[in-house]
Structure formats: structure tokens, C-alpha cells
Amino acid sequence: MGINVLEGRDADASASSSVMPYGAARVIEGCRLPASRWLSREVPSWLDVDLGRVAAVEGWAVWHLPYAGWPAPDYVLRSYSLQGSLDGAAWQTLDAVVDNRSDLTDRRFDVQFARHLRLQVQAGLWVHPAVASLLEWQVFESPVRTSSRLRSLAVSAGTLEPGFDADSWRFRVDLPHAVDSITITPITEDQRATVRVDDDVLAPGASAGPYPLAPGGRHFFDIVVTPLCGPWRACHLEVNRAPGQGIAHYLGQIALFSPQAVPPGWVECAGQTLKIDERNQNTYSLIGQQFGGGGWNTFALPDLRGKAPHPACRYYIALHQGDGPGSGFYYPLRSD
Q1: Is there a single domain that holds both residue 104 and residue 222?
Q2: Same-domain status, 78 and 186
């Protein structure tokens, strides 16, 4: 017999109707005394429990009122079923009992997966067909777990090092400077599993990205597989893009970089206020005060914080002009 998954879930139990104080929580408390029962004066009726996670269930048991002294079979439920759902909306019948006359029904079935469990009463007590009541309800979990492994991991450029192995947890891709983005495609062994790349949750077989890559930058991605039932599994992908020999740009040009790979002469577009003097005159002559400033003495850079297409990058503005770092002119940032 497996573990009773309903144990300790009394706060998550509900019923279509109850005669108080005989509410839904009473039948999963582990007590089979006469006062610890569920009672409803409506048939059909049901009991629900949200497990808070997906469980592999393989059996269930129901203790009826005669177990605590009521006459049998008059006070047993006649017909009822166990139903399961992954989302609480679409239900399927896992097992059913018809014309029961026993004070304890203990049954097994092929493993099924469910987060929400329902005891559905189709026919009430033999002596009172419009009344539903029972002492205890348990559902048993199987040790079966679904796969959290990847079947494959593909990237849009470069080669995984080492080559893909489902048992490996760390991979690396080295890319030339000409490749400025990457797409990642993880495929799970079990299509029911959920896979995400960083914060991007993917549909089965879908790709994540493209993710921008800063020149000379090291980029890290977490790939996490959460199975339908069981513990999650993660692997890590490091993507390295080679630095360029020089970045051609114009004064005042705005570009996207990783904070760890900003070329000299570029500053973040964060709305900084700069003083209008010989150090900043060239930038001021280009953008003026269209992004703010303090009249005749200061001007502001554009504020593009939070607007980058990926949280690992930010927008920067060039305060010098040329074909590579150090070429042309560059005036150090001065803000007052």
C-alpha cells in the first residue's frame, strides 16, 4: 500500500454540500469515530481535494458508517467513483464502485496522474438514497515518477562541448564574433514535462530565443525540466561570443551590450544629466536637450532602462566616434 496523499490536506478539502459540522475535512483527518464523518443531503454530490502537486495514484479506500457501528449494509454508500484532474476543470474517472454493500472498499488500479482528486457520489445510502455520508477517504500514491531528462539539446550556431548526453548537466558553446544571437531548443523525453530556459516556458518541441549576445561576453542559461510527477532536473549552458577587432560606430549611436562587455567610450542610457562644457560639447551638439536638462548649463542622455529586449542586456550611447575602441575622440563622462 502506498502513501496516503490526502493526509494533512484537510485545509484543501471541499464539498458540493455539507451538513455542518460534518464537513469535507472530517473524512481525511485519519479518525474513524462517529463524529468524524462527512454528511450531505444532496445526491449526486462530491468531495474534492487539491493536492498542490501532481501525484501518481494507484488506489483508494473508503470507510463507511457501519465501520463505526451503523447497521450494514443500510448505511453504506451504494455507488460512487474516484475522479482525477490535472487542472481542476477536466475530470476523468479513475475507478468506480457500483452497488456496494461493504463497510470498507479498498481498491487498486493502473497508475494515473492527478493533482485534483474527487470522490463523486452517484447513489447515496441504501436506507436514505438522497443522503451521502462516509467516515474516511484515502488515496494512495505510487512510487512511479515521470522523466525529467532531456532527449536532445540543440543550438542555432556552434557545437555543444561536450557533446549532448542526457546525464550531463553543464555544456558550453563558443561562437565567432559574427554570430550575435542564439536560439536554444531543448526536447524532453516525456512530452508531458514542462521545460523552461531561464524565465521562458516552452511548449513541447519549441525553441527559446533568439537571445542577443554581446561581443566578448559570457552568457549563461539555465534549462530546467519539471516532470509531470517527481523532482525537477536542471542543466546549464554557457555561450561565449568572440570579441570583435573593432566596433564601427558614430558619435551618439545607441547600441545593445551586456554590462560585462561594454566597449570603451560607451555609457548606459540611464537619463544622466551632463554638464555642457568642452568635455560633453560634441554629444550636446548632437542630441541637444530633447531628453531633458537644466536650461543653459546641462543636458540629459536618453533613459532606456528596462527597455532592452532581454534582461541580460542594456542600451548604451557612444560618446566617441570611430572604427574601434580608442579611435576618434572620447570625452570622459562628467555629470553634475
Answers
A1: no
A2: no
User: Can you read off the three cell numbers belonging to residue 225?
Assistant: 525540466
Q: How many other CB atoms are found less than 10 A from the CB of residue 77?
A: 24
Burial class (CB in 10 A: 0-12, 13-18, 19+), 242: middle
What's the distance, Cα to Cα, between the start and end of the chain in Å?
Answer: 73
17 and 130 fall within a common domain: yes
Question: Residue 203: how many CA atoms within 13 Å on its side-chain side?
Answer: 1
What values do phi and psi take at 211, rounded to 5?
A: -100, 130
Question: Strands 233-241 and 170-175, how do they pair?
Answer: parallel
The domain in which residue 185 lies consists of 150-241
Let me know whether 8 and 134 are in one domain: yes
The number of distinct structural domains making up the chain is 3
Q: Is residue 333 in some structural domain?
A: no
- 213 with 175: CB under 8 angstroms? yes
Instruction: Say if CB 319 and CB 331 are below 8 A apart.
Output: yes
Q: Residue 285 corresponds to which amino acid? A: S
The residue with cell 540543440 is: 154
Are both 69 and 108 inside the same structural domain?
A: yes
**What does the pLDDT look like over 84-124, one tens digit per residue?**
999 999 999 999 999 999 999 999 999 999 999 999 999 99
In a shared domain, residues 123 and 20: yes
pLDDT-based confidence at 242, cuts 50/70/90? confident
User: Which DSSP letter does residue 217 get?
Assistant: -
Q: Could you give the CA distance from residue 197 to residue 221 in angstroms, rounded to a whole number?
A: 7
Q: Classify strands 181-188 and 208-212 as parallel, antiparallel or unpaired.
A: antiparallel
Among candidate residues 119, 141, 163, the one where a domain is terminated: 141
- Domain shared by 187 and 119, yes or no: no
The H or E element containing residue 49 is strand 45-63
Residue 197 phi, psi (nearest 5) = -115, 110
Residue with cell 438514497: 129
As a whole-number percent, the residues of the chain with pLDDT over 70 amount to 93
Name the residue among 122, 51, 52, 129 with its Cα closest to residue 82: 122
- Distance, CA of 310 to CA of 291 (rounded, Å): 23
Sign, CA torsion 68/74/75/77: positive
